[in-house]
Specification:
Layout lengths: L12 H12 L10 H4 L4 E18 L4 E5 L8 E8 L8 E5 L2 E5 L2 E7 L3 E6 L5 E18 L4 E6 L11 E7 L5 E7 L9 H4 L7 E4 L2 E5 L7 E9 L8 E6 L3 E5 L4 E5 L7 E13 L9 E4 L3 E13 L9 E12 L3 E6 L5 E12 L2 E3 L2 E6 L1 H4 L4 E7 L4 E7 L12 E5 L2 E8 L2 E8 L2 E2 L2 E9 L2 E6 L10 E4 L5 E4 L5 E4 L7 E7 L2 E8 L6 E5 L2 E9 L10 E5 L5 E6 L5 E8 L1 E9 L2 E9 L3 E6 L2 E5 L4 E4 H41 L1
Parallel strand pairs: 33-39, 40-46
Antiparallel strand pairs: 1-8, 1-10, 2-7, 3-6, 3-8, 4-7, 5-6, 9-14, 10-13, 11-14, 12-13, 15-23, 15-26, 16-23, 17-22, 18-21, 18-23, 19-22, 20-21, 24-25, 25-32, 26-30, 27-32, 28-29, 29-30, 30-31, 33-36, 34-35, 34-37, 37-38, 40-43, 41-42, 41-44, 44-45, 47-48
């Protein structure tokens, strides 16, 4: 069985072409989930992909336009892409008219791809064109799963008719920047599908793995049931989203009969050794076609290719009878700093291996990423590639080379490049381009144009009412600031693949913060810590005090808002940020201050020391003033009474003296 090589995006030309195959069955539009709810976990995307593949014969006269439509989407699925493929190449006079991507092999058109439901081809020649083509329609159903455990369970069931299990491919994907790595894949029987002994018994096409992806292809006899994806977690498992990939040299080794060898090489300075491409092979004059006997052991390895063939060599006559040679070959992509080769055969085997290193590179901006490639970066290497892998809410629209060539329409293509070929593929949210092969190289700045679907944020208060003119900040995007409109909406373009911290500032205070680890949906309703304060002003007797001025001041003495109570003595303050405040009530000439810790919708009663208001003069009289007046009046009455008493005594004494005179 044959299978193209894969390794994070590219290795050698063959390895790069395999990644393209992986890309071709990967990302699509997100299923609905709310980051605000899922922000506590990183998320992985699981895609259930079904494919319809039929062969048709076409005949186009000069000037004819062929319009092909994709069949309706099965229930629960959406169209992922629509492809017309001619394995040996379309006739030269057939050109694509309506399409998104095209595949070329050595400059010859072999496939046309559209993410919509229509493809148009035209005959621009002067002769009739006839060709056979495969009509491949791919549908996808997606879901997001939180990475909240060390093992992720994926249930596999047969699709609804007319599709069968053999039509199904399942892909598991983690964003590069997430601190997780695929460790193993466990099948329904409980056996590891990445173990070297297990890999001997399954088709290399059946299971594909790399540190961030798992692909299960059920067209190769994988059973239904529950599959477990085992993960490693740690910051050391983060990978860049834009990087260079280089292969310095090829190594050749011979492993003796019954022997083994551990391989580990020192990586390039300032580069990360991501793994190896390994080929084991042997050629012996045997007729024993039994498989196995040579394999590798590693932390994580993808068994990508296997061949076991008999080659017959003989003369043109019976002078030399036929001699049979058995050729065995296996290829692996290893994702660890070491691997062990085991040879259980009775004769030596040969090995070729290539260390693969990557280096983060690129300056992100709202319209994509620019990647500068210098001679120093890729000097003394045989092959080099530029790779970009972004989250699913971004789409790569174009790749521009330093010379200005636009390469964004090519998918899994090899283009003439000097005396060699250049490999390139752009599809949805991944791309690679070969930047060096042997002595052919293109230095300079590559521009990757990316369309980022904006994250729509609606800022609301505790009652769900929109917050207008709130400041929205994204700390990970170096000074990125925007404001909500009158309806509380703001658009944020998360143009850098990483974990983002979203903060909202309202009336000078931070009222919302959310760590968005994986963007799974384009809309967030941000419920902010913004509340309602109801103040009820009353007099000393508990009666409502209308026309009372209520002021809200922050801890710095800044006045946030001022309102006047109604006849019911109530003033309602809307959309006050969480915090510590002073509430000042002022009625006429009477004032009162209270301290308040606002952390929710609150109603407070503010009792002012007002007893009554003097009519006509509109003067508020406090209890103290009334008490003082009462004391003064009481003292006055006592003084009056005392004076009156003394006058009465004098009058009585005068009357007594008059009586004494009269008696005399």
């Amino acid at each position: 069985m044959r299978r193209k090589f894969r390794i994070l995006g590219c290795l050698t030309l063959a390895l790069v072409m395999v990644l393209a195959n992986a890309l071709y069955t990967s990302n699509a539009t997100s299923v609905k989930a709310t980051p605000d709810e899922n922000s506590g976990f990183y998320m992985a995307k699981v895609e259930y992909i079904i494919v319809s593949d039929v062969v048709r014969t076409f005949s186009l006269k000069p000037g004819d336009i062929l319009e092909l439509m994709a069949p309706p989407e099965p229930t629960g699925y959406i169209l992922k892409y629509f492809e017309v493929r001619c394995e040996n190449g379309f006739p030269e006079n057939i050109v694509p008219v309506v399409f998104d991507r095209k595949r070329e092999a050595n400059g010859k058109l072999t496939a046309v791809i559209s993410r919509k439901d229509v493809i148009k081809l035209a005959n621009n020649g002067i002769t009739e064109a006839q060709f056979n083509a495969r009509i491949i329609v791919t549908y996808v159903k997606e879901k997001w799963v939180p990475l909240d455990t060390a093992e992720i369970l994926i249930s596999i069931e047969e699709p609804e008719p007319p599709f069968q299990l053999s039509n199904l491919t399942v892909k598991f994907s983690i964003d590069n920047y997430a601190p997780y790595q695929v460790k193993d894949v466990i099948g329904p029987s409980g056996v590891s599908l990445t173990n070297s002994s297990t890999q001997e018994d399954i088709d290399p096409e059946a299971v594909g793995v790399d540190p961030k992806h798992v692909v299960l292809s059920f067209s190769h006899d994988l059973p239904e049931g529950e599959y477990r994806i085992v993960l490693n977690q740690g910051d050391e498992y983060r990978l860049p989203s834009a990087f260079l990939v280089v292969e310095e040299k090829f190594y050749n080794e011979t492993i003796p009969a019954g022997g083994s060898k551990v391989i580990s090489v020192q990586g390039r300075n300032d580069w990360q050794l991501i793994g190896y491409a390994v080929v084991l092979y042997s050629m012996t004059p045997e007729v024993n076609k039994k498989k196995g006997g040579m394999y590798i052991e590693a932390g994580l390895a993808d068994f990508v290719y296997s061949i076991h063939e008999t080659i017959t060599a003989g003369g043109v006559s019976y002078l030399i009878p036929p001699i049979n040679f058995v050729f065995n070959a296996k290829a692996y992509v290893v994702f660890s700093p070491w691997f062990k080769v085991v040879n259980e055969k009775s004769y030596p085997i040969n090995m070729i291996y290539i260390p693969i290193s990557i280096k983060a590179r690129g300056e992100w901006h709202p319209n994509g990423v620019k990647i500068a490639v210098t001679e120093r970066d890729i000097d003394n290497v045989k092959y080099a590639y530029l790779v970009v892998q972004i989250p699913s809410y971004g789409e790569i629209r174009d790749v521009k080379s330093p010379s200005g060539a636009s390469l964004g329409t090519y998918f899994e293509s090899t283009l003439p490049w000097g005396s060699s070929l250049r490999s390139i593929s752009v599809f949805e949210n991944e791309a690679y381009i070969q930047i060096k092969t042997g002595n052919i190289v293109e230095y300079g700045t590559y521009t990757i144009d990316i369309s980022w679907k904006p994250l729509i944020i609606k800022a609301v208060d505790s009652r769900g009412k929109a917050l207008a003119n709130a400041i929205v900040e994204v700390a990970s995007l170096e000074g990125y600031v925007t404001r909500t409109n009158a309806s509380g909406y703001a658009e944020v373009k998360l143009y850098k693949p990483c974990e983002h911290t979203l903060a909202i500032k309202f009336k000078g205070k931070y009222v919302y913060e959310n760590a968005i680890k994986t963007v799974t949906e384009r809309f967030i309703e941000a419920k902010c810590k913004v509340y309602y304060l109801t103040v009820k002003a009353t007099n000393f007797l508990g009666q409502p005090l209308g026309e009372t001025e209520i002021s809200i001041m922050d801890e710095n003495g800044n006045v946030l808002d001022i309102k006047e109570t109604g006849k019911d003595g109530i003033a309602v303050f809307e959309q006050i940020p969480e915090g510590t405040y002073q509430v000042v009530g002022k009625y006429k000439r009477v004032e009162k201050t209270e301290n308040l810790e606002l952390n929710g919708d609150i109603e407070i009663n503010m009792k002012l020391n007002v007893l009554f208001t003097i009519p006509y003069v509109n003067v508020a009289v406090t209890v103290e003033e009334v008490a003082g007046l009462t004391v003064a009046l009481t003292a006055l009455l006592l003084a009056v009474k005392l004076v009156s008493g003394k006058e009465e005594e004098k009058e009585e004494e005068g009357e007594e003296e008059e009586e004494d005179i009269n008696i005399d």
